[in-house]
From TrEMBL:
Protein name (Swiss-Prot/TrEMBL): Exodeoxyribonuclease III
A Pfam entry, by short name: Exo_endo_phos
Gene3D superfamilies xrefs: Endonuclease/exonuclease/phosphatase
Gene: xth
Similarity annotation: Belongs to the DNA repair enzymes AP/ExoA family.
Keyword field contains Metal-binding: yes
Cofactor needs: Mg(2+)
InterPro entries membership: AP_endonuc_1 (IPR004808), AP_endonuclease_F1_BS (IPR020847), Endo/exonu/phosph_ase_sf (IPR036691), Endo/exonuclease/phosphatase (IPR005135), ExoIII-like (IPR037493)
Coiled-coil parts of chain: none
Record keywords, A-Z: Hydrolase, Magnesium, Metal-binding
Entry keyword Repressor: no
Domain Endonuclease/exonuclease/phosphatase, first and last residues per copy: 4-248
Amino acid sequence: MKIVSYNVNGIKARLPRLLEYLAEQQPDIVCLQELKTADDTFPIEDIRAAGYGAVWHGQKGFNGVAVLARGTDPVERQRGLDGEPDDDHSRYLECDVGGLTVASIYLPNGNPQPGPKFDYKLRWMDRLAARARALLAAETPTVLAGDYNVIPNDDDTFSTRAMADDALMQPESRAAYRALLAQGWTDSLRVRHPAGGVWTFWDYQAGAWRRDAGFRIDHLLLSPAVADRLVEAGVDKDYRGRDKASDHAPTWVRLRD
């Protein structure tokens, strides 16, 4: 079973690339982030024509998450996180599919920091941690997949100096991510590539792709029962280099059935 996290950076703009990826890689489950489209303009007919069912939580112009499943329809469990009733951002969607609970996560960027956007990021991470703790307590086999907007370690970026003031690499962001892992989650890509140096994102600016100036912010965290099934984890990096591609590459885990 191949499970993918893919920030598409606008599903309407990247739809040809997404459909191309689905046809070529045939992943079993795909968690999409940054749809940038409302619920009623999500391209469900194209997704179904590609052989996938879908549940989505859209928002016009920004944010938005979805879960796709090959040959079946995911069953929605929860959209959004508890703890902040006035938060209308479409950033969390949790579904059951293939005997797993899978969440698609688009964590706030938090820039500029310090400031209200960074404060919101940290509150959101606390809310995610509360939900993750509940899933573990229920012993639910779970994958938390998405764009976390956190660079966990110094060797997860091309340059710590360039990213030193960014919200993605602040001590508070990293501490919140480490606290999440400490609950019992496995950072699948890190486990399979412990030396670091594996990027999932390359900015459109300053020739970042050409220079391979990237960093790792897309993560698939596995609950203990799922971690026991982990075969491999990686990044389909070549898709970042295609015409009109997202600035993220599909990031994946492969599990034993």
